[in-house]
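A student in our group prepared the protein record below, which I am reviewing. This is what I was given:
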Amino acid sequence: MRTYVRMTFHSEGASPLKVLEVMRGLGFDEAMGIHDFVYKWKDRTTLEDVIRLTTEMHAQLKGLDVSYEITTIS
């Protein structure tokens, strides 16, 4: 299972390098294409696991003035 994140940055928000630091800290890798980041689940996961991860991501990105879209594919 993988969780993909697509970001939209704003000129008044945090730098892409700061956002990259936050996302790496959460366990995401950079991705090329329509998604900017990917989280590769190691074990079988549940919807609750995805919600926990994205809730933590939301908290860490708060105040950085970025918008995001999340897609999880099993």
In short: The two ends are 4 Å apart (CA to CA).
